[in-house]
Amino acid sequence: MNKNMILAVVLSVVVLYVWVEFFAPKPQLPPDQPTQDQSAAPQEKSDTVLTQGPDAASQAVPQAAKPVEGDLFRPGAIVATLQNPVQKGRLSGTAMELDYATDGGRLSALPVTGEKYRNKKLDMLMALKEGTYFLEMSSVFTAEPRYAVENATADAVNFRYEQEGITEFKTIRHAGDYLLTVSKKIVNNSAAPLAWRPALRYQSIHENADVFSSYGKRFEFLVKTTGEGMKEPSDREDLLKESQGKQVQWAGVNYGFFLYAVVAGEKEALTVDGTVDGKENRTILTVARDEFTIAPGQTAEAAFTVFIGPKEIRLLEQAGNDLRASASLGWFGFLAEPLLWVLNFFYDYVKNYGIAIILLTILVKLLLWPLSDASYKSMAKMKKLMPKVEELKKKFKEDKESLNKEIMLLYQKEGVNPLGGCLPILVQMPIYIALYSMLNNAVELYNAGFLPFWLVDLSEKDPFYILPVALGAFMFLQQKMTPSQMDSQQAKIMLYVMPVMFAGFMLFLPAGLNLYILANTLLGILQQWLVNKKYG
Fold it and tell me: Is the pLDDT of residue 35 over 90?
């Protein structure tokens, strides 16, 4: 990268950082008594199934979705009094295992067993807010009770709790790689009707750089509705705006390389609400279905499908309902996705993502070589004219208008375009931004090693800071080699300050990104040496 490229990149990074830290909308703290309402969009079909009991005179019908005050997660009115003994067990799977416990019918751990993630000792519940549990589903009781295990199979566990003629069944099923279904069946053999709104609540921490290699990322909402692109609401107001009155395909919490999402079936009605509380470091997402009343003698059922795992394209496409959109690669995704395809192509042959990044860098550099060469040539020509420009500055130091006119005439006479060094850089910038976004967000780099005992995970920072320090050193060398059109003071700043600033900024960014920029800088030095040799 030459001086203009470095300056453009640094300024872009600074602007983005300042925007995020000081001007971007901040998460809003929830009011003490929230009053904002939300209703579900009318749908043709719901996942709620109501079954008439043997002695019931009629079948219960779900109530029309009504405005919701505050949290959609509504506890029932009955206090669960039975204290069944806590039972624990495990469901095995190819991608992760499910450890369950009967108190609350919860999953106590989701250890990942897939080969790519095994040595990281990942638990998909590591982002769960302390004091909460997973999968938390609304109940006709004031809180989910201490169930008993009714039965367990290789891929599912069925819980049961019975009190005063009311039986609540809860089933958790391992539906595929990182896919779960949680369902409930309420049998009302009591003398009074029961109100129940099926809802699933997920309480996550809001920010923690040690969770899922999430440096620089906050755990905020994602929502996808029919006919619209994926949205990234930063607070409750935005979440309601992007989901209210729309066909929600899925809603979730983004963890950078990983995702929690509730996925709707075809033509199913989902209502979404949530809270981002930065002060308490908490993100809460609630997804609900229509509320209904279960009359005596009636049975009601409802189910939710949950994806919780890495944002691998194959897995997201298998989950369906356009969950693939969650693997966003930023504004220049249309460029980043082909670059990711090429990166994976190289990886298929070399089986090392570090080497694949270097090969991708070489390929991009070769493709952009003519544009870079044009920029270097223009700068070399401008350097040759600097003595004549300095003479004009002395001659017209009191007449700026004449000075500018004479400089432009000099450029015209010598066939030099003063913008010749900048325009090629502007053309290249979207590609470099796309590369940055791809290397910073692609889950392929998660736990992907390059060199043993040093770069064992390219999604993490360089543990010994070798790459960013080397980057600063080689950037200094490149600055020394690059022709300068600046005055001596500006030139010193570019020569000494910029490499240090850039290296400092890269200290805590992913090693894969550092590796790419270092490889690109070395190739830039080679190109600069060739240009200097040719044009002197």
Answer: no
Measured CA to CA, the distance from residue 316 to residue 176 in angstroms comes to: 11
7 pLDDT tier (thresholds 50, 70, 90): very low
- Identify the DSSP state of 494: I
- Per-residue pLDDT tens for 355-414? 999 999 999 989 888 877 777 777 777 777 778 887 888 888 778 888 888 888 887 887
What is the signed CA dihedral for 234, 240, 245, 247, rounded to 10 degrees? 40
The per-residue pLDDT for 194 is: 94
Torsional class of 102: left (φ above 0), alpha (ψ -120 to 50), beta (otherwise): alpha
Q: What's the CA gap between 467 and 514, in Å, rounded?
A: 6
| Lookup: tokens for 335 | 């460029």
**Closest of 69, 109, 118, 66 to residue 90, by C-alpha:** 109
Predicted local distance difference test score (pLDDT) of residue 4 = 47
Strand partners, 96: 112
| Ramachandran area for residue 281 (φ above 0: left; ψ -120 to 50: alpha; else beta) | left
Which positions ≥6 away from 154 have C-beta within 8 Å?
A: 91, 92
3-state secondary structure of 37: coil
* DSSP characters over 90-143: EE--SSB-EEEETBTTEEEE-BB-STTTGGGT-BTTTTBPTT--BSEE--SBSS
Distance CA 407, CA 423 (A): 20
For 527, other C-beta atoms within 10 Å of its C-beta total 18
Please check the confidence at residue 265 and state whether its pLDDT lies above 70.
Answer: yes
Give dist(CA 235, CA 174) in Å, integer.
31
pLDDT tens-place string over residues 191-221 = 999 999 999 999 998 887 777 876 667 788 9
Rounded CA separation 301/290 (Å): 12
- Strand order from edge to edge, sheet including 199-205: 136-137, 199-205, 282-288, 271-277
